[in-house]
Amino acid sequence: GSTIELPFGTSAVTVEADTEATTSTFSISGASGLSTGNNTLTVSVTAQSGATATYTVTLKVLAASSNKTISGITVNGETVTDNAITLPIGTTTAAVLVTLDSAFASYTISGNDTVSAGTNTRTITVTAQDGSTANTTLTITVLAVDEDNSLGSITVDGSAVLANGTVNKPFGTT
Prior knowledge:
Blueprint: E1 3-6, E2 25-29, E3 37-46, E4 52-61, E5 70-75, E6 78-79, E7 84-87, E8 96-100, E9 106-109, E10 118-127, E11 133-142, E12 154-156, E13 159-161
Parallel strand pairs: 1-4, 7-11
Antiparallel strand pairs: 2-3, 3-4, 5-6, 5-8, 9-10, 10-11, 12-13
């Protein structure tokens, strides 16, 4: 017989059968009570003479997916590389969007969309169809305002002056 693959969680199938002779009858067993793995569907045909033939099909119910793979992450519409992103000065929100390989998986993100200057972390928890989980740490760095107000150097009329130094120029110099 042949094998038909069925999605995870399938517990019953609808089976239709037609006999060649209108005088033959048939019975079907194994179309319900299906479980993960191989299940046997049997169609028994009885001719008017009493002769019987049995046809079997293997119904393979697939196991739950364990796929927890993240295929992409964006923050505020920008692509994340190596689970880290740097956002500009003044950013206060970080909208995280995760794309997963499996349509049967789901994800949650710790915390909320609020971020502040410096390093912010979020944990992305992916749950596969089979219930297994995987955590990924996302680092969101918001650039801080530069507070450095020191001078690198001072020159007066081409001469270097030390910080807090004195410049002496002849009277009347403009």
